[in-house]
Amino acid sequence: MQLQKNIIEWNTDKTYTFIDVWRCEKWVMIIPFLKSGRVVDCKRELRYKKACLPIKRINHATPITLPELLKLYSKKDILEMARKKNKNMGKLVNWHKLEFY
Questions:
Q1: What Rg value do the Cα atoms of the chain yield, rounded?
Q2: Nearest to 6 by CA among 51, 45, 72, 54
Q3: Which of 41, 46, 79, 101 is most buried when burial is the number of CB atoms within 10 A of its CB?
Q4: CA atoms within 13 A on the CB side of 5
Q5: What are the pLDDT digits (tens) for 26-42?
């Protein structure tokens, strides 16, 4: 399967792995993205160390994206939750409500 510029041609008769989908969703670190607009890839080994969210929706199972979250909440609120998440990586965040669960 060819991954070119993080785009997959979705084919209904082909099964895609979690990693294929994850790469195409373009996961980035939240804090650098909101502070300076820098797109810092959230590599697979970093996803359990830094708060990350996708910036592109691939299918209905994709979590809320950063652009969608910015429509719901201010940058300040999202940055505050991202900092809390970085301190408590063992906890899960409900990004729709900006709270831990």
A1: 14
A2: 54
A3: 79
A4: 0
A5: 889 999 999 999 999 88
pTM of the model: 0.75
> Which residue matches tokens 């979705």?
10
Nearest one of 74, 16, 66 to 40, comparing CA atoms: 66
In order, the DSSP letters of the chain are: ---BTTB----TTS---HHHHHHHTTEEEHHHHHHH----B--GGGTTTS-EEESS--STTSPPPHHHHHHHS-HHHHHHHHHHHHH-TTS-EETTTTEE-
Amino acid residing at 85: K
Q: Report how far residue 71's alpha carbon sits from residue 65's, in angstroms, rounded to the nearest whole number.
A: 10
> Cβ of 94: how many Cβ atoms within 10 Å?
11
Q: Where are the domains of the chain?
A: 18-100
